[in-house]
Amino acid sequence: xxxxxxxxxxxxxxxxxxxxxxxxxxxxxxxxxxxxxxxxxxxxxxxxxxxxxxxxxxxxxxxxxxxxxxxxxxxxxxxxxxxxxxxxxxxxxxxxxxxxxxxxxxxxxxxx
Length: 112
Known about the structure:
This protein has 112 residues and is of the alpha+beta class. Helix content is 46%, strand content 15%. It has helices at 16-27, 39-50, 66-77, 95-103, 106-111; strands at residues 30-34, 56-59, 84-87, 90-93. Helix 2 (39-50) links the parallel strand 1 (30-34) and strand 2.
C-alpha cells in the first residue's frame, strides 16, 4: 500500500487531544490553530493585531501532538488545513476568510 492510498486512523473525538482542542476553543474568545511558517496563518493573525484583539495561538509545528490536533480540527471543521480560527467557540474560517471579514467590517462586529 503506497503512501497516497493509506487511510488515516479514525479520530478519537473523546480522547485527550480532542478534549484539549475543545477546552482550548472554549477558554479564549479568539483561538487560532496555526503553524509558525504558514503565510495564511500570519494573514489570519494580522487583523486581530490591528484590532488590538487578544488571541490564543497554538503553533502546531511546535507541538508533539500537532498532527493529531489537526485531525481533530478536521473532524470538527471539515478541513485539516491551518489556520483554523474560532471566535466565541465558533469556527470562523481560515486566513483568506479572516482577511475578507476584516476588510468588510464583519470581523469587528463578531468581536464586539
